[in-house]
Design brief:
The chain has 447 residues and is α/β, with parallel strands linked by helices. The chain contains 13 helices and eight strands.
């Protein structure tokens, strides 16, 4: 899930005409595919695969065998190091070829980091690098598949177009002995020049031409897996980078929450308590001189105490509401909806409670989305649906407002998506101009 972990926007106007309907070609896709750019790029990749693959295989195998054979001397280790370094360079070339012809964007593997400087440190780092050995493995593994792909791709492409264009070149075969499609029961040869066999051959050629794009795509899909699996960063390294980014998001979020709590305490309850202390001090001074005025001041201070207590309750609810701890997500979301400025329908279908951390994230996700609805949507009604699907907790918040919410515009939705991604969650936003808006959050279910 994390490979696609992001927030997205669906239902955009891309790919639509002025009338809002999806653009369609004059021909169905199966007839356009043989002439499409993707088919010709994949054919080019397949044709180049044989000579490129042969060169890479010959170099990789030669250098590997030479380095292994020289291990009995001191020269074998540096030769293997050079072999691995050059394999990484050739891997970069193959990633560029896949990116240009297949549209496959594979990131570079982690750079080699030597524990100590000098030639020995660099050599040892290369020999310990799993990415380098995987690059060398690619040079050896891809060649058999390149041979198979070349043969199958050329046979389908050449045979299909050759049979389909038979009427254009069959005149050159007339009068050539022995060229016949088949012989009937009497032994009479059915020649290519006959109308019915020619039409049959052209139909077969058309079928092959129409099938060829799918065949090429299937062949190159294996190349995509080889390039992505052997020449890209290792899954473990990618996960480490991902977790490092998530840790930064969590730290920044925690720091922002602490700053918000400090600001709310300083500007709210703390200021009221300071004013309360001053009022009580004045009331104490007036108690003997003017008891009636002191009583009025004490009454005002009592009101300030109530306001301070209410602000502290609101602040505590913002940190972690007691209803969420005591009664779970269903009751907490219902209480949240009751305080929203827009009428909200809440439906929760949860067989049990997830982990407290996931409950808290789900609660504050809905809280922020309902605040956005109250402030920006202009909606007349909203709905919150929460349910479990497998090992995921799904939350859907929708409204009938003006729409146009876009995470890419730098709104609070972008920060919310980053917070969810820190726990392997996803935020999906579907909000056309004019509405309605539907935001779906997906979180891992952890008990």
């Amino acid at each position: 899930m994390s490979g696609a972990r992001a927030f997205a926007r669906y239902g955009t106007a891309a790919g639509r005409g002025s009338g809002g309907a999806p653009r369609r070609g004059l021909l169905p896709p199966v007839l356009r595919a043989p002439f499409g750019g993707r088919t010709w790029r994949e054919l080019c990749y397949t044709l180049l695969g044989l000579p490129v693959g042969a060169a890479l295989f010959a170099y990789g195998l030669t250098m590997l065998v030479f380095g292994m054979g020289m291990l009995v001397t001191l020269l074998g280790v540096p030769i293997l190091a050079v072999t691995l370094a050059s394999a990484r360079g050739l891997g970069a070339f193959e990633r560029a070829r896949a990116r240009g012809l297949l549209g496959l964007d594979v990131g570079a593997p982690a750079p080699v980091r030597a524990a100590r400087g000098g030639l020995s440190g660099w050599t040892g780092a290369l020999l310990r690098s799993g990415e380098s050995w995987r690059s060398l493995g690619y040079l050896l593994v891809q060649f058999p598949w390149a041979c198979f792909s070349f043969v199958v791709g050329v046979v389908f492409w050449a045979t299909g177009w050759g049979l389909l264009t038979l009427p254009l070149w069959e005149e050159g075969l007339r009068g050539v002995d022995g060229i016949a499609l088949f012989r009937d029961s009497s032994g009479t040869a059915v020649a290519l020049g006959s109308p019915a066999p020619t039409a049959l051959v052209c139909a077969l050629g058309l079928l092959l031409v129409l099938v060829t794009p799918s065949v090429l795509h299937a062949l190159t899909s294996v190349n995509r897996r080889l390039v992505g699996g052997l020449l890209g960063p290792s899954p473990l390294a990618s996960r480490v980078v991902e977790l490092e980014g998530d840790r930064g998001v969590v730290v920044d979020t925690a720091a922002a929450d602490l700053r918000r709590i400090e600001r709310d305490l300083h500007d709210g309850a703390q200021a009221r308590l300071v004013a309360l202390a001053m009022d009580l001090g004045l009331a104490k001074e007036k108690l003997t001189e003017d008891p009636q005025a002191a009583a009025v001041m004490v009454d005002e201070a009592h009101g300030e105490v109530k306001l301070a207590l209410q602000e502290l309750r609101d602040l505590a609810r913002g940190i972690h509401p007691a209803v969420l701890t005591d009664r779970g997500l269903d009751a907490a979301l219902s209480a949240l909806a009751a305080r929203c400025a827009v009428p909200v329908r809440v439906e929760a279908d949860l067989p049990c409670r997830p982990a407290p951390a996931i409950e808290g994230i789900a609660y504050f996700t809905v809280s922020e989305l309902l605040q956005n609805i109250s402030k920006h949507s202009g909606a007349r009604a909203a709905a919150v649906d929460v349910w479990r699907s497998g090992d995921r907790l799904l939350i859907r918040v929708g409204d009938d407002g003006v729409g146009g919410a876009d995470p890419a515009a730098g709104s609070g939705l972008a920060g919310l998506g980053e917070r969810l991604s820190a726990v392997d969650g996803i935020l999906l936003v579907d909000s056309e101009r004019g509405g309605p808006t539907t935001v779906t959050a997906e979180l891992p279910w952890r008990t």
